[in-house]
């Protein structure tokens, strides 16, 4: 059992919005003691070893030799393979959960872990870890009174992402024409539509909504969006829980911007813009005579990492014009640093 000394301190940090307009714009990050983090890492390694072979094959988080790029590549493979057939189109639903980690029911999680052959002693330890937690909120120099909670897996804890993956492991697609891609709490429903028959896709989404209701997860219908890859016809909007799901022309899927025309212009434009912003800092470092070796390290960590984000997904399909634009960023960095740097083609080939 875990004693009350593992008190959580939830520090409210600003979320993705640059301007805070309400409490929902804050993202709570739970902090535990160093000792608890060590225990969590031990349990994490043990859980990954036991549950790995039993996980949903389309869950890409916490799997050996799998990454975000693999998830995106798999999704694109399903889409392109399907569109090669006549009379087809694809609907993609990018699901957003409202405070997903915070709504996990520990007793239900324990049942799911038992079904995944996790020993009862480990199940009890995890339940003890998640229940009767003493929490307080800290914002700047202000602290709230401590309260006890027994729901959810705190964001910021080592174990939380894996526990959420295991919590949602039992929901999978029941129809071969619908694929359910998961990466922790990022869930994407891919409907491979043939001859205009969307019944399986819509039924799968109804089952997803029902499963969420049974498992205390809430679909955020305000942030859940759909993208339709169909070059010929108008398709009716999707409705979830009496709310019409908005359609988008592009979506940032696990760090890669996918457009409904399956071209990479939008993603590459965003990549170049970010790289240009960071080249400014490289120039400033050069002006203060930072050694060349450190400039190269800065380029690799801050600029090259941006240019190579999900490069295995999009580089092979990029136009020659886009490749030249991207390589121009590398040549600019070469002039600033004063030494040759690996080309994007070389980096792509080495991956």
TrEMBL record:
The chain crosses the membrane at residues 294-315. Signal peptide: none annotated. It comes from the Eukaryota. Residues 1-258 form the Reverse transcriptase domain. Keywords: Membrane, Transmembrane, Transmembrane helix. PROSITE patterns: RT_POL. GO terms for molecular function: 2-oxoglutarate-dependent dioxygenase activity; methyltransferase activity. Pfam families: ALKBH8_N, RVT_1. Coiled coil: none annotated. This is Reverse transcriptase domain-containing protein.
